[in-house]
Amino acid sequence: MTMLPNIEEAMEDARNGKLSPYWQNDLKRECLHGELSAEERLALSELNCILSETPQWSSEEELCHDMENIGGRVRFCRFWNEHYSMVQLTEDRNGGFHAAYVLDTDASPEVRREAALLAQKELAKCMQEWGISLLNAPVPEQMKYASLAEATSHLMQVLNDPESITG
């Protein structure tokens, strides 16, 4: 499979300052796992030049932009540049809450635990600011949560067991 279309798309985003670290790392990972043609290596070199000359927005800025475009907002967001992990809590335009999380399966169990603990600490601080508490009962995974407390409680539960998070 050729990587050229992905690299060219990344170059276009990078020229506009919109290639977040999350997607930069994703592309690097894809390129490392395959043999690149001379044309792909040249395009990757050009992409690296663009990235060295053009400031890029963060993964959080990208998520905020995307959510604003659909009438929602980001309530909590944490991306790691060192590994392929993220935790986010968003609110859609209808007041529904969505939780998403990935802990890099290629990272060591210790790195995964540290990432989960950091996300929990940051999320706990947000919960204090929002004036909400954890729910006493377990909250099952759902596509959409009716309340911020429900979505946040689910995220905290999941982060208690980082080994169970795949992807």
Taking the alpha carbons of the first and last residues, their distance comes to 22 Å
Order of helical and strand elements: HHHHEEEHH
Care to count the β-strands? Answer: 3
Helix content: 40-55%
Tell me the number of helical segments per DSSP (H or I, 4 or more residues long). Answer: 6
Specify Rg, calculated over alpha carbons: 18 Å
* Overall average residue pLDDT: 89
Short description:
With 167 residues, the protein is α+β, with helices and mostly antiparallel strands.
Characteristics:
167 residues; alpha+beta; three-stranded antiparallel sheet; 6 helices; globular
Q: Could you please describe the fold and organization of this structure?
A:
A three-stranded antiparallel sheet has the order 1-2-3, sandwiched between helices. The mean pLDDT is 89. By secondary structure, the chain is an alpha+beta fold. The protein has helices at residues 4-15, 21-32, 38-53, 59-69, 109-130, 148-159, and strands at 73-80, 85-91, 97-102. The chain is built from six helices and three strands, in the order H-H-H-H-E-E-E-H-H. 51% of the residues lie in helices and 13% in strands. Helix 1 (4-15) packs parallel to helix 3 and helix 5 runs antiparallel to helix 6 (148-159).
Give me the secondary-structure topology.
Layout: H1 4-15, H2 21-32, H3 38-53, H4 59-69, E1 73-80, E2 85-91, E3 97-102, H5 109-130, H6 148-159
Antiparallel strand pairs: 1-2, 2-3
Helix pairs in contact: 1-3, 5-6
